[in-house]
Design goal:
By secondary structure, this protein is an alpha+beta fold. It starts with 22 loop residues before the first strand and ends in a 28-residue tail after the last strand. It has a single domain (34-274), classed as q2cbj1_9rhob like domain (Jelly Rolls). It has helices spanning 41-50, 61-76, 106-112, 115-125, 152-160, 206-209, 220-230; strands at 23-24, 52-55, 86-88, 95-99, 129-139, 147-150, 167-173, 184-186, 193-194, 233-234, 242-246, 251-253, 262-271. It is 23% helix and 20% strand. Its EC number is 1.14.11.55.
């Protein structure tokens, strides 16, 4: 175990009145070693360098079928109509995301504790972990809208009070991710640069930002510089693939104008030594279904 993260100094300021300089990351990407889990030394080195890892066949075809049926059940659950954990597409009204999904699905709760995930999360973060955020995402054919380029850590730091970029996300694809159906794009290596954003966080901003984010997004100049420096990769692969990516990597997705839908299970693991404090740049913390404040280690 390592020492608790210092929360007294804000090393990653954002939501500024004027554009700020890009900040070099002050913390590691990989905190554990090859002896600590399922990634070998070469995989850990590659993850540290690129900021992400793609694992094919992470879950079995049978599990893909099982979890796909569970996502269909959740989307059709009439008891969730009007539930604050359900985010719908702005134009079509179709379900876009369901948050705090481990509280709604025993199957997904069990998956979050599966050694295939938990061992890797602990290894990457070098400590016990808890779930900062869980959700399932739906991107229907023709109607699925994307997300502009952003760093998750910028939001989690500014609005949730996450002190340092010591969190990792795992996105498990339940449908094929083609290059043309709105798949996630990442800038390999961009996780080493923290981009401060301009604009004050409004009250209850999460009610809008989960559909369309306007505050907490980097400038086009910053995106251009990062893209030319690092290039752009995309998470493609068959159903059952998993993308592990650092919380500060610059990423985004385009609209899905194809007939081929996408869906995934999205789990965010945070180190228990990086527990949330007060938001660094927001009037109040976001609700706990978006930024969990129960730091009990997963078992």
């Amino acid at each position: 175990m390592t020492a608790m993260i210092d929360t007294t100094t804000d090393l990653y300021p954002s939501r500024l009145a004027e554009p700020g300089e890009v900040i070099e990351r002050q913390h590691p990407t990989v905190w554990g070693t090859a002896d600590d889990g399922r990634f070998d030394a070469a995989a850990l080195e590659a993850h540290s360098e690129r900021g992400f890892s793609i694992l094919q066949d992470f879950i079995t075809p049978g599990e893909v079928t099982q979890y796909s049926a569970e996502l269909e059940r959740l989307a059709a659950d009439t008891s969730l109509q009007g539930d604050h954990r359900v985010v719908r597409e702005k134009s079509s009204g179709e379900v876009r995301s369901i948050f705090e999904v481990t509280q709604l699905s025993e199957q997904i709760d069990a998956l979050s504790r599966d050694p295939r995930l938990l061992d890797r999360a602990r290894q990457l973060l070098g400590s016990d972990v808890y779930l900062h955020q869980t959700r399932v995402n739906y991107m229907p054919g023709y109607k699925g809208t994307g997300f502009y380029w952003h760093s998750d850590f910028e939001t989690w730091h500014a609005e949730d009070g996450m002190p340092a970029p010591r969190a990792v996300s795992c996105s498990i694809a339940l449908t094929p991710n083609y290059p043309y159906n709105g798949g996630l794009m990442v800038m390999p290596g961009s996780h080493r640069s923290y981009v401060p954003c301009v604009g004050q966080t409004p009250e209850n901003y999460h009610q809008d930002s989960l559909k369309e984010q306007k505050i907490g997004v980097p400038s086009e100049e910053a995106i251009t510089e990062l893209a030319w420096k690092h290039g752009v990769d995309q998470f493609t692969g068959p159903a059952g693939s998993a993308l592990w990516f650092d919380c500060n990597i610059m990423h985004g997705s385009g609209n899905n104008i194809t007939p081929f839908p996408r869906s995934n299970i999205f789990l965010v693991f945070n180190s228990v030594e990086n527990a949330l404090t007060e938001p660094y740049a927001a009037p109040a913390p976001r609700p706990t279904h978006i930024g969990n404040r129960d730091f009990t280690p997963l078992r």
